[in-house]
Write a structure and sequence with these properties.
The protein has 7 helices and 14 strands. It is an alpha+beta fold.
Length: 330
C-alpha cells in the first residue's frame, strides 16, 4: 500500500486541553507510559514536520492447522470466531483401532507372568548348581555335570533378562501408541481466535487437503508501514512509537518489531512492522492506521527542545506489549 505523509498537530495540544489519565492506573507503569507518550506527543507538538505514515493492521500470527495423519474427522470442538487458549483440544480424528491397540499394549506392559516363570526357573537351576558344586568338592559329582549345570543356569538367567526386556519393550510400545493417538488430536498452539473451519465430522483427511482450521493471533496485533528512507533512519527495533486509528479516534503506543535493512527501489520506502497491544480485541485486523515518525536528527529542533515541551497524555492510548500491559491505558 503506497504510503502518504501528512503533517498534523494533535488537537488536544492546540486547544490547550489537558485530559487526565484514569484513576485506576498507578505506580511505575503510569510514569513509564506517561514519559513515552509525552515524549512522542512533545515531538509532534514542537516539530510539525513529524511524518504520518499510513499503514494497516494484520494478525500477529496466522496458522493453518493441519492433521499430521490421514483419517476421518471424528469431531470438531470449536466454531468460527471462538476464542481458544494454547493447548486446547480443537478437533479429533477417528481413533477406534488405536485405542484397542493401546489396551493390548497396556495389558502386555503390566503382565508379569513371563518374568515370574523365568525367575522361578533361574532360581531352580541356581539351586541345582549350588548343590552340584558342593558334591563336586566331595568328589560325588563329575566336572561334566557341573559344567552342564552352570550352562543351564546361565541360560535360565538369560531367559529372565529377556522377559524383563520384553516388558520394557511393551512399555515403550504403549508410549508409541499414546503418541500416535495424540497426533490424531488437533490442539491450539497459541492463544487466538478460530478464523476458519475447513472440515466437518465425518470428512476425510487426505494428503491433498490436510488443513482442518485456521487460527489467528490478534493480541498483540501487528501493523505494517512503508516508511520513507529518511524517516526510517530514526526507527530502531524495540523503540516506542505512536500509532493512531483515524476511523475510531483511538491511539496506541506500540513497539517497533522490524525495520527492513533494504529500501524498496521502486517506492523509496522501508518496510516497518510495529507490534501493538490488543487486549480484549479493541483494534481490528485489516484496518487503516497512521504511524507518527519523528523527523531525522537535525531536522526541526533538537531532542532537548522537544522533550522540554511536555503535555498531559490523551485518553484512549494504550501501551506497548509487555508484562505491565494491563496498566498501559493512559
Amino acid at each position: 500500500m503506497p504510503s502518504t505523509i501528512r503533517r498534523r498537530v494533535p488537537n488536544a495540544l492546540l486547544d490547550g486541553s489537558r485530559p487526565t489519565a484514569p484513576s485506576h492506573i498507578d505506580g511505575s507503569a503510569t510514569r513509564r507510559m506517561a514519559i513515552v507518550l509525552v515524549t512522542l506527543l512533545g515531538l509532534t507538538h514542537s516539530n510539525p514536520a513529524v511524518a504520518q505514515i499510513e499503514g494497516f493492521t494484520e494478525p500477529h500470527a496466522t496458522i493453518d492447522l493441519a492433521a499430521t495423519e490421514n483419517g476421518v474427522v471424528a469431531s470438531i470442538l470449536v466454531k468460527e470466531g471462538e476464542t481458544v487458549s494454547k493447548g486446547q483440544l480443537l478437533a479429533t480424528l477417528d481413533t477406534d483401532v488405536l485405542e484397542t491397540t493401546l489396551e493390548v499394549a497396556r495389558a502386555q506392559m503390566h503382565s508379569t507372568g513371563k518374568i515370574d516363570a523365568a525367575q522361578a526357573d533361574w532360581r531352580s537351576w541356581q539351586s541345582k548348581l549350588d548343590k552340584l558344586r558342593e558334591l563336586r568338592t566331595k568328589g560325588h559329582a563329575s566336572q561334566t555335570e557341573l559344567e552342564r549345570a552352570e550352562a543351564d543356569c546361565a541360560i535360565a538367567k538369560a531367559r529372565l533378562e529377556m522377559a524383563r526386556e520384553d516388558q520394557a519393550i511393551s512399555a515403550l510400545d504403549y508410549k508409541r501408541i499414546e503418541a500416535q493417538l495424540e497426533r490424531r488430536r488437533i490442539r491450539s498452539p497459541i492463544d487466538g481466535i478460530v478464523l476458519k473451519v475447513f472440515k466437518d465430522a465425518g470428512e476425510a483427511i487426505l494428503p491433498t487437503s490436510p488443513n482442518v482450521l485456521t487460527l489467528v493471533e490478534l493480541d498483540p496485533l501487528r501493523a505494517r508501514f512503508s516508511v520513507p528512507t529518511p524517516q526510517a533512519a530514526s526507527l530502531r527495533p524495540g523503540s516506542s512509537v505512536l500509532v493512531r486509528f483515524p476511523e475510531t479516534g483511538r491511539q496506541a503506543i506500540g513497539a517497533v518489531e522490524f525495520v527492513s535493512p533494504v529500501t524498496d527501489a521502486k517506492s523509496g520506502t522501508v518496510p516497518v512492522a510495529v507490534v501493538l497491544p490488543n487486549e480484549h480485541g479493541k483494534y481490528r485486523s485489516g484496518v487503516r492506521c497512521v504511524l507518527e515518525v519523528p523527523p531525522p536528527a537535525g531536522a526541526g529542533g533538537s531532542t532537548s527542545e522537544n522533550s522540554a515541551n511536555r503535555a498531559t497524555a490523551p485518553q484512549k492510548t494504550d501501551g506497548p506489549p509487555g508484562p505491565n500491559r494491563k496498566d498501559n491505558h493512559v
